[in-house]
Every structure is written in structure tokens, then in C-alpha cells.
Design brief:
This protein has 208 residues and is an alpha/beta fold. The chain contains eight helices and seven strands. The chain has one domain: 3-Layer(aba) Sandwich (Rossmann fold), CATH 3.40.50.150. Strands 3-2-1-4-5-7-6 form a seven-stranded mixed β-sheet, with helices on both faces. Helix 2 packs antiparallel against helix 5 and helix 3 packs parallel to helix 4. The longest helix has 14 residues. The radius of gyration is 16 Å and the shape is globular.
Length: 208
């Protein structure tokens, strides 16, 4: 499928990232922190812009790449971001400041998502991005759907998990978890779902 690979490469390289996002991506690579691809980042921005997001929550801060993309589409929104790594969040805070994001628009919570999410208000967010440890993806999506308002969007990064989800011979727990999630939401009456092949895959769910 060479034509598909060349089209994917073209679409990724077509995206122009801001200086702040580019710097955050560079720092992420240096720190060994996986980020969303430029193509996925652009889809995050388009999504938040389309629905006019005002309140967003991100599970997995990283060094700020995905958060900046979310805010690029919704510059007036507030972003709550959860991550267990305090050093990563400090770097992300500096990234947001460098990008000119007002401090009162970003709330960083340090802690395990499994502990923090049950305390968050349900039906309160326009957008929920799941980009945390893959072992907990199904649990995080369940929380995301609880937190999202009706008509809100839950986005799941790395949904194709390094291309392994499409390989039926790949049966390790993380791959199986993503495959199970994709299968279940494809037939669920609770959501409208779509799977984008950009980057490492982006699952998009609209809460009915």
C-alpha cells in the first residue's frame, strides 16, 4: 500500500506547527515522551474549533504538545490537564507560558488519572482527550464519557497503537484493549464514533 503511506506522509508534513508546539515536541523527543503527531494535533484543533469548546480536560499532559493543539482551536477555553509526572507538568507550564496562554486558562493536576477522574464533575466538559498510559484506556474512556456533556467529544490518541491493532496476530494486553474499545464503540448506541488513521490513530466519539 505505498500510495497510502505516501498520502499519510504528505498529510503529516502539510501541517505547520507553531514555534511553541515545535519546541514542546523537540523537548518531548529529548525526554522520551511520546506525543500526538502533527496531523493528529491539527485534528484536535479543528475539533475544538468546530464545537466552540469552552471547557476541556486532558488525561495525560506530557510536555504540552496536545494541550497547545487543543487550545489553538479554542483559545478562549479552559483546559484541565492531569498527569502523574510533576516534572512533565512543570515543563508543560513553561510551554503554555511561552505560547502566551494565560495562566488562568490552564489547570494542571498532578496525580494518577484513576484517582483524580472520579472526583471531576460529570457532564461538564465539551472535549475530553485521552492520551495517558495505554493500559488504562478503556477505564479512561468510560470516565471521559461520564465527564463529557451531551454532544461533547471524547478523543483517544494512539488508537491504532503503533499499527498493531490492525494485526490480528498481535494479542498483547494493550493492543487487545484498544481493539476491544474500538469494536465496542463502533456499535454502541451511546456514541457516534469515527476512527482517523492520522498519526498513530485518533478515535473520535460524540456523546449522544
Amino acid at each position: 500500500m505505498p500510495h497510502k503511506e505516501s498520502s499519510w506522509k504528505f498529510a503529516e508534513e502539510l501541517v505547520t506547527e507553531s514555534d511553541a508546539i515545535g519546541l514542546a515536541r523537540q523537548h518531548s523527543l529529548e525526554a522520551g515522551v511520546e506525543t500526538v503527531s502533527p496531523g493528529v494535533g491539527a485534528q484536535l484543533a479543528v475539533t475544538t474549533a468546530l464545537i466552540g469548546a469552552k471547557s476541556m480536560i486532558e488525561i495525560g499532559t506530557g510536555l504540552g504538545v496536545s494541550g497547545l493543539w487543543l487550545l489553538q482551536g479554542a483559545p478562549e477555553a479552559t483546559l484541565t490537564s492531569i498527569d502523574v509526572e510533576i516534572d512533565h507538568q512543570q515543563a508543560a507550564r513553561e510551554t503554555f507560558a511561552l505560547a502566551g496562554v494565560p495562566a488562568n486558562r490552564v489547570r494542571l493536576i498532578t496525580g494518577r488519572a484513576a484517582d483524580v477522574l472520579p472526583r471531576m464533575n460529570e457532564n461538564s466538559y465539551d472535549v475530553v482527550l485521552v492520551d495517558a498510559d495505554p493500559e488504562g484506556v478503556i477505564e479512561y474512556v468510560e470516565h471521559g464519557l461520564r465527564l463529557a456533556r451531551t454532544g461533547g467529544v471524547v478523543l483517544v490518541a494512539h488508537a491504532l497503537w503503533n499499527g498493531r491493532v490492525a494485526n490480528p496476530a498481535a494479542r498483547e494486553p494493550v493492543t487487545t484493549g484498544f481493539r476491544t474499545l474500538l469494536t465496542e464503540v463502533s456499535t454502541s448506541p451511546a456514541v457516534i464514533s469515527s476512527l482517523s488513521t492520522a498519526g498513530d490513530g485518533l478515535l473520535q466519539l460524540v456523546k449522544r
